[in-house]
Amino acid sequence: QVQLVESGGGLVQAGGSLRLSCTASGRTFSGYTMGWFRQAPGKEREFVARIGWTGGSTYYADSVKGRFTNSKDNAKKTVYLQMNSLKPEDTAVYYCAAGSVFWGQGTQVTVSS
Known about the structure:
Layout: E1 2-7, E2 10-13, E3 18-26, E4 34-39, E5 46-51, E6 58-60, E7 68-73, E8 78-83, E9 92-98, E10 102-103, E11 107-112
Parallel strand pairs: 2-11
Antiparallel strand pairs: 1-3, 3-8, 4-5, 4-9, 5-6, 7-8, 9-10, 9-11
């Protein structure tokens, strides 16, 4: 079992930045691809970004490409999502997932216009 806890969400103005963190505990998350997803009110959960176990392979949704950066620190069992140039449409609850099997509880990101 892997427990994931997201943090770093909050309220920010359009054009601002936030950095989300997702820290794992329990069983090691070694070998898992780590993903970020988000769900806006009234919408389905959507993929945002993912990073491979070694951190050398990243992939982003077109909507965030060039603005968001995914990274990880295996020693700290933490994955980061640096979000720059935020837009109101980025407002959502952001979740991290390990291999799409284990999920965090989510952190709210609200971008005001």
